[in-house]
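Q: What does the predicted 3D structure of DA1-related protein 2 look like?
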Amino acid sequence: MKWLSKFFKGTGASSRGVSTGSQQPQFLGDENMAWRAPFRSSDDRSRANREKEELDRAIALSMSEDLKRPSGYNRWRTNNDDDLARSLHDSFNSAPLPFPSYAPREHYPRGSRTCAGCKREIGYGNYLGCMGAFFHPECFRCHSCRYPITEHEFSLSGRETYHKSCFKELNHPKCEVCHQFIPTNDIGLIEYRCHPFWLQKYCPSHEHDNTPRCCSCERLESRNTRYISLGDGRCLCLECMESAIMDTGDCQPLYHSIRDYYEGMNMRINQEIPMLLVPRQALNEAIEGEKHGYHHMPETRGLCLSEEQTVTSIMRKPRMDRRGLVGIRTQPQKLTRRCEVTAILVLYGLPRLLTGAILAHELMHGWLRLNDFRNLRPEVEEGICQVLSHMWLESEVPGSRNTASASSSSSTSMASSSFSSWSSSKKGGKSIAENKLGSFFMHQIEHDASPAYGEGYRSAMAAVNKYGLRRTLDHIRYTGTFPE
């Protein structure tokens, strides 16, 4: 999405210029205008002076005649004449100034102009015309800050007027990383990046300036927050850190609850498959030594291992200090192959729901191998594994269940409830932020663009929605494809 960058031009439909400092009036379009107060010419002033002198002489003559009358009559007449003279004098000095020769008379009759701001009559003096209305200069105010608009230009939005700076503050998008106005590009348009799920808006430059990005939820680190470094090139935001699983021991209850989830769908895994939480480097080394399987690049978070290897696992969770997580205790572990599946490996430090989604995916790989699903194409095997990962997430996130879950057996809810009781007792129930993370992980599965994980998932989910999980698996066993 792109935004127009120049909201605040001096002319045009969105902003109009007003000037009150020039000698001649400025007409703004057909309805906006600004007038200077009327002024007196030199001839007007000399004529006024002559009239004032004549009036003073008349008053003096009248007063001298009153001295010849009786005292009572004279006193009464003198007082009234004083009042009359004073009234005439004041009336003369406050007489309306002549209209300037350039002013259209039809705009000046007294009582014909009412200020649209204070609703009172506009007398003689400076005033502004805008949008078919008139304003005292002090009543022409910004709709945002409510202070008078004194600049030569202002911004207009609908029927509301703004300072240019206030309009920019309200409408120009700000970067949610550096909290500055997003700059315009070379052709004058406001260009920014926006995360498709979180809708986080940010400057394009932050994709290349080493701004930390959460390895779980993908949000960029804001300037007023601090992400936690996991020590292997990854970092975690505080929301994801809240439910992160850091060592193999802490992950065991989650692992067994997902095995129960499979058993509840009549997909029991009879073999005891070891599960280890491992650092990033250990997982990458295991991938290089694995001959079987298709891996999601550029970042693989889990692995269903078939070969015998020695793998470094996380045995004790790290502690946190100013530098991030320190004190990780690892231990090399020899994995011996006793069946088609040697072990399941998952990256440490990921939120509980993401760790569970990875485990559900890798356990489906194990189930397929243990049940003689051989030589499946990547889009078929990865697609059906993603379906099981998505279904498990649906069972964990309230309000996210769709027809795929409904098509599975009713015992699915029993499996999910067993894990829910464990998670509630261990974590006190899932928070709103954790449920939002679960929705994001489902969104990632649904919108994956890769041929195997993305297109494979969508084909598999369409088959499960139409025929159910059991019939889809039977069709895959005999044909190696999804039912149409």
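A (community wiki): The structure tokens above were generated from the sequence. The CA atoms of residues 177 and 224 lie 8 Å apart. The chain has 13 helices and 22 strands.
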